[in-house]
Amino acid sequence: MPRFSIVVPSHGVAGRLSQALDSVLAQSFGDFELIPVCDAPDAPAADVVAGYAERDSRVTPVHSPPSAGLAGARNTGLKAAVGGHVLFLDGDDVLVPGALAALDARMSAVGDVDVLYFEHERTPWWEGEPTNPAAPLLARTPEGAFSPGRAPQLTGVTLPAWSALYRRAFLTEQGLAFPGDHFTDVGFGGLVALRAERVAALRAVVVRHLLRRQGNRLGLPGEHHAELLDQTELVLTRAAEQDLPADRMKPLFEQLFAAVLKTAAHPRRLTSGRRSFFRRAGALYRRHRPAGYRAPGGSVGVQHRLLASGSYAAFRTLRAAHRTASWAAALLPRPRGLRTRLRYAAALRLPLDRNLVVYCAYWGRGYACNPAAIHAKARLLAPQLRSVFLVEPEAVGSLPRGVEHAVIGSRKYWQVLARAKYLVNNANFADAVVKRRGSVHLQTQHGTPLKTMGADQATYPVVAAATGSFAKLLARVDRWDYNLTSNRHSTEMWERAFPSAHETLEYGYPRNDVYCTASAEDVARVRKELGVPDGKKALLYAPTHRDYATGFETGLDLAEFCEAIGDDYVVLLRAHYFYDQGASRGGGRIIDVTGHRSSEDVCLAADALITDYSSIMFDYANLDRPIVAYADDWDVYRETRGVYFDLMEIPPGRIARTPEELAAVFRDGSWADETATSLRAAFRERFCQFDDGRAAERVVRRVLLGEPPESIPPVIPLAERVPAPAATLVRS
Questions:
Q1: Tens of pLDDT along 377-413?
Q2: What is the maximum span of the chain, computed from C-alpha positions, in angstroms?
Q3: Can you tell me the distance from the alpha carbon of 359 to that of 387, in angstroms, rounded to the nearest whole number?
Q4: Distances in Å between the alpha carbon of 605 and those of 133, 562, 569, 646, 723?
Q5: How confident is the model at residue 333 (pLDDT cuts 50, 70, 90)?
Q6: Are strands 94-95 and 164-167 parallel, antiparallel or unpaired?
Q7: Strand stretches in 510-607, DSSP E
Q8: Distance CA 418, CA 351 (A)
Q9: Above 80 in pLDDT, residue 729?
């Protein structure tokens, strides 16, 4: 039997789960079992956990449906536990180094106590000093083991479940489990403290609680706050049943109602039912108020007296008197120009147009990427919706016929942004755009992240300097309602890079649908448009942007490369869109396609891809055609930009480090041999999970038409997809 069982619920924290698991497995004390609780075998966290379970036999995952909530996940993990003592760790928290050794030493010193309380550190997600809220509480506890009556302030309701170690036999014998769904720590902690006979404290930090940028789920508005009263009633009823002594009942009562009053006075937590919440709280207060109890002084005491008397009107007046109006300033629109601000402010007062959808791609560069693919599908599936594409003036001429548009900065631009029910973008809308109540913002992204993104860029000075204010970046992220992803890797990395309360849609990238729907005729048409000679193999060369470089440099002499590989090939040069100046580069066997509107068309035309670290490799992999990584400056790129995984360890095909190596893989045919094919297959398994040709349909049905998740077409398995055929290659 292991010394410790460590239960780790993982719902909604796939992007940070590895930190929690690593912190446990790296402990110097190794006598434990680690029980991650996943939603289902195919959930995002399950992919993370599977790798750990394969590498370490101490990892034994179990499953609990999301509908069971945090309480259900912990109870499932508790039932599976076989260790002598149980520790609960949230999936986005970590054990500090040496934590288990410290717990083992303390347990050996105090004996077999029912509960060992310990300190924890609350660490701000971005800036600020860590705090240790349990330290003052535990500082007043006796040395060694003691009965709960000797530390009446230790009621259990103010400490989270992961701030204590529990004797498993004690929990089992007492039939203790996590009650309800929301605020389950209040109920569990209170019941444990009521039933425990022998406890102890460890005055040292064991868990580092990493605060989420979007805050605790319990702080969000909603009807779930009524469950705080359920937990309060449960604990106080059990305390009354066992005739808890007055010296213990008073602190328990005060701590519970401190939380109740905080919720009752909070202006945004209770969106409805404030009066009924207050009335029920008052009834509980009067029923369980200890004999001779005297309310505290000051404003808190006033709230106690109003709650006891059921004076909701007076309580509401008191709450309003203490509330400031500073929050309203954040809602004021800030577009440039007084006239524009006034017009935009006036439009914001008009009702939302529930049939208006506004699209934008690459900051207005044109009709492209995921927004364009969603727009096209919406015209078929939801013709009742009016769609407006936002573009810069120079992009107007490239719009397809029949696409309504608004020029960025124009009067119409601000009007549609103010009135639209739906806003779709693959980057971000301007800072001045206000997220209106009832509007729906869809972030489609425009690639799979190899390089660090969002908040993860902060530790790379060159990138951070170019990014600008991370506070403004995250304010834009807070407007998102949905975030689109094309693979499980992206799901996890976007959660880290863009922490917020939006919902992730694992639907695939709509722009990649064409890779499963295009025909041989489509491929031939695109090649003709681009000027690819008949019978020639087209190699797409698509290098990415270097944050440490100035201007566009290919890092490869394409003329020499073409000379070295022979006359069977032509090169399609597509520079990063940052360098699309509308001017042609190259000539002869080098065809510059940087300015071509559709990267999807360019990929369809190419028989193989040569790239360095561009995210185009993840999209192109859907075509199941050869990819060669030209990684001449990988070490520099990795150190200056930061990456989420080592591309050299998980390449999409052959790797070349020098121009000579690159030419050699095309001369000797290794660019398309069995090894290259095997590497590509593994890459596709990992990064082509959801791109099956129906992503746009899923997005339109779920986001624009509001269909329930269960009615959305499922993703077609990778083995059943038929990619668009290449012009000169025959796929087995």
A1: 999 999 999 999 999 999 999 999 999 999 998 999 9
A2: 97
A3: 7
A4: 61, 18, 13, 29, 13
A5: low
A6: unpaired
A7: 537-542, 569-573, 590-592
A8: 9
A9: no
